[in-house]
Structure formats: structure tokens, C-alpha cells
């Protein structure tokens, strides 16, 4: 499939999605988010894809929702279309592992999109922010919720109320990103990390992701119960037998995603 606002490329079992509106700093227009959702629908059911890396350009991962498109919308326009949850939340619901590889600006909806991925690897020039308040609105794609869970109330509140940006070093210190890499190594590092994940059993990786995400939705005892049930269910897979037999036989496992 070809798209106008994104590029999808396969690297072995990893799909690399590049947001591709460089002149608008990858502002997330309705067309772009629709295409992203469509691409994810295809990748989710493609058995040859085990992980996804989402990235932008060197200058901008994404500078937010497209302000020029949004500016004249009425309350009824956004309410009736349920702007934006339907398409934007797609990547948060994607069942295979996702990595956001962020260089440059990740602002507003761009920061929210990165936070919808399973984790963020940042280039040393990355800048994160929720500047919606400076244009008379508030984060609308989970920024007040995911940022607060990731970096805590104090820092999230300051960022949402002042609109200030956080550089990569502060973002790593605050727990927003897993690590910082030189900008020219961002894609290769993210792909290498995704390939490592893709070398595991895909269904087991999906269960691991499901279990970690559950921690954000339920109480500790419910989360541990959920984890235990999934842990038990791994013993119904061929890949658990293969993984543990390979360890005993001192050889690398050959997972079959079964
Ligand atoms: N929307 C539309 N166009 C944009 C956006 C944007 N968010 N960001 C940048 N652009 C465009 C600029 O208008 C400019 O276009 P043109 O050349 O035609 O004038 C081009 O990209 C380059 O931008 P700048 O000239 O401004 O580049 P600078 O390097 O000077 O500045 C900045 C870079 C600091 C990133 C600056 O562009 C900026 O502040 N952008 C806006 C950031 C922002 O406020 N983001 C939040 C948007 S609101 C939002 O995301 C709400 C999300 C709610 C949920 C999701 C709903 C969909």
C-alpha cells in the first residue's frame, strides 16, 4: 500500500513507519492520522511483522495536531467526529510491540503519539512538550494522563500549564524516554532494538506487552492476577517448550510464533 503522508518500509520482521510531512514538521493532519491507522490495521494482521518503529524527520517527530486545519473547527465539528480518539488512539491499541524513535520536536499531539508507543528512544536533539495551552487549548490525545503517569504530577503539571519544552536529557531523567542516542544513530538503534524484540516469540511478546500495559489500568492485585493467568498460558505454547528446551540444550531457541 502507498500513502501520501507516511512511509512504511519493512526491515526483516520490523516495520518502520516514517511520518512524512517534513514541510509542516509532520503536523498530524486528519489525513496523516487516517493513513497511520490504516497502515497499523494492515501491520497488525501481517504475520511477517513482529514489531513497529514509528519515527519522523531529524527536525521533528511531529509538531502536534495540524493547527491550520483545526483552527476554525467548531465544538460540534470536534464533538460529532469524536476528534480525535478514534484514529489517534489506534497505535495505543496496537497489539504488537511499538517503539517511538524521536528526533527533534515531539510537541502536543506529537508527544502524545510518542507516548502511545510502548517506549521512546530519543535522539540527543529531541524536544518534548505539551504547548497546547499557548494556543488556547489543552492536550486532547492523552497528554494530561500519559505524561502524568510517566513523569509524575509535578513535572507534568508544569509542562502542561506553561507549555515549556523538555530536552532529551531531562526527558530521560524524568523517565519519559528509555535512552538517548546520537541523532545519526537513532533509526539504526531503534531498528536494532525492534529486531531484538522481533527475534522473540511474537505471541509471547504480545502477552508481555499486554501484561505491562495492564499495570496502568487496574489495581496491583488485579494486575498480578492478570499477569499470572498470562504466565500460565505461555505454558500452552510451543515456543515456551522450545525456549526452555533450547536453554537446557545450550543452543539458541528457534521460535515459531506458536
Ligand atoms: N500545525 C500546523 N503547521 C505546523 C505545526 C502544527 N502543529 N507546527 C509547525 N507547523 C508548520 C509551520 O506553520 C511552518 O509552516 P510554513 O512554513 O508554511 O509557515 C512549518 O511547519 C515550519 O514551522 P516553523 O516555521 O514554526 O518552524 P520553527 O523551527 O520556527 O519552529 C516549532 C518550530 C517550535 C515546533 C513551531 O513550529 C511550533 O511552535 N509549532 C506548533 C507547536 C504546537 O503548538 N503544537 C501543539 C499543537 S495542538 C495539539 O497538538 C493538540 C493535540 C490534541 C489532540 C490531538 C488532536 C488531533
TrEMBL record:
UniProt keyword list: Fatty acid metabolism, Lipid metabolism, Lyase
Catalytic activity: a 4-saturated-(3S)-3-hydroxyacyl-CoA = a (3E)-enoyl-CoA + H2O; a (3S)-3-hydroxyacyl-CoA = a (2E)-enoyl-CoA + H2O
Domain of life, source organism: Bacteria
Gene3D superfamilies: 2-enoyl-CoA Hydratase, Chain A, domain 1, Lyase 2-enoyl-coa Hydratase, Chain A, domain 2
GO annotation terms (biological process): fatty acid beta-oxidation
Transmembrane segments: none
Record keyword Zinc present: no
Short name of any one Pfam family annotated for the protein: ECH_1
EC nos: 4.2.1.17
PANTHER family assigned: ENOYL-COA HYDRATASE, MITOCHONDRIAL, ENOYL-COA HYDRATASE-RELATED
Its job: Could possibly oxidize fatty acids using specific components.
Similarity comment: family membership: Belongs to the enoyl-CoA hydratase/isomerase family.
Identification of the protein by name: enoyl-CoA hydratase
Organism this protein belongs to: Polynucleobacter asymbioticus (strain DSM 18221 / CIP 109841 / QLW-P1DMWA-1) (Polynucleobacter necessarius subsp. asymbioticus)
Amino acid at each position: 500500500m502507498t500513502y501520501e503522508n507516511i512511509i512504511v518500509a519493512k526491515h526483516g520482521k520490523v516495520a518502520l513507519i516514517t511520518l512524512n510531512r517534513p514541510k509542516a514538521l509532520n503536523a498530524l493532519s486528519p489525513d496523516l492520522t487516517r493513513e497511520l491507522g490504516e497502515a497499523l490495521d494492515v501491520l497488525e494482521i501481517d504475520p511477517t511483522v513482529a514489531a513497529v518503529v514509528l519515527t519522523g524527520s531529524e527536525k521533528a517527530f511531529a509538531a502536534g495536531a495540524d493547527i491550520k486545519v483545526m483552527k476554525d473547527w467548531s465544538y460540534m465539528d470536534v464533538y460529532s467526529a469524536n476528534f480525535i480518539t478514534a484514529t489517534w488512539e489506534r497505535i495505543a491499541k496496537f497489539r504488537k510491540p511499538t517503539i517511538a524513535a524521536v528526533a527533534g520536536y515531539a510537541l502536543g499531539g506529537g508527544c502524545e503519539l510518542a507516548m502511545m508507543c510502548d517506549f521512546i528512544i530519543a535522539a540527543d536533539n529531541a524536544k518534548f512538550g505539551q504547548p497546547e495551552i499557548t494556543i488556547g487549548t489543552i492536550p486532547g490525545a492523552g497528554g494530561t494522563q500519559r505524561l502524568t503517569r510517566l513523569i509524575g504530577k509535578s513535572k507534568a503539571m508544569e509542562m502542561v500549564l506553561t507549555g515549556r519544552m523538555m530536552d532529551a536529557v531531562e526527558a530521560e531523567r524524568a523517565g519519559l524516554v528509555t535512552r538517548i542516542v546520537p541523532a545519526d544513530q537513532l533509526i539504526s538503534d531503534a531498528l536494532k532494538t525492534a529486531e531484538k524484540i522481533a527475534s522473540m516469540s511474537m505471541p509471547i511478546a504480545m502477552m508481555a506487552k499486554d501484561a505491562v500495559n495492564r499495570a496502568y489500568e487496574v489495581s496491583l492485585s488485579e494486575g498480578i492476577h492478570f499477569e499470572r493467568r498470562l504466565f500460565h498460558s505461555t505454558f500452552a505454547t510451543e515456543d515456551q517448550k522450545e525456549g526452555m528446551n533450547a536453554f537446557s540444550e545450550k543452543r539458541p531457541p528457534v521460535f515459531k510464533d506458536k
